[in-house]
Design brief:
about 20% strand, alpha+beta
Amino acid sequence: MEATQLYAKHFIPLESDPSVLNDLMYGLGVSGSLTLTDVWEINDPIQLSLIPRPVLALILILPTSEKYESHRRSAKVLTTDAAEDSKEESVVWFRQTINNACGLYAILHAICNIEIREFIEPDSFLSDLCARSTSEQEDLLNSSTHLDAIYEKAALRGTTAPPPAHDEVDLHYVCFVKSSNGSVYEMDGDISGPIKTNITLKHDEDMLAVSALECVRHCIAREDKDGTFSLLALVSGSDNSD
């Protein structure tokens, strides 16, 4: 993230540990039947077979290199008008207005683009957020002290000491989701809108399909494999919120 960008507030960065991210997700009001799990290897079919299916979204943690910044500046995003003209292509995207909160925004992009809303608990922060207009959603994220408390509780669970909230960090979270007609989108709150990739999944394919993983491979190849990458999968399963 560029230091010149103005933010509504500053959060300490999240450690890329599934247990930390799951704590935040459940605190926001996501059902315990969803969980984020590590994807250790994307080129090994045996390793991939261990991931519960279906995979509803992918969250990639990648270095904020000059190559990423160049991609961010040149990305062709789906405009609001285009999304409104084609409802089947519509996806939920949040502009990042909180510094160092890209992990939070990745979770929001993953959860809010699942068609089945039964995963969101009633009377939760997330149910309130989803019931609002786009401008109201941004206002709530910027002003909610309830969100501040939920986030801080999860972020402080990490095993390493977090840097100060105003510091710039070297890693960034992006999310990949499947729209209702199978199009795969890259969701990054630091870019000016959702990016429609050239990948379209079949009805019975999830986000761990070979073609969907090409989005992750492309991001890694863009960096010439220089830097640290982590990948998380959002999956459904038994209740994990306790």
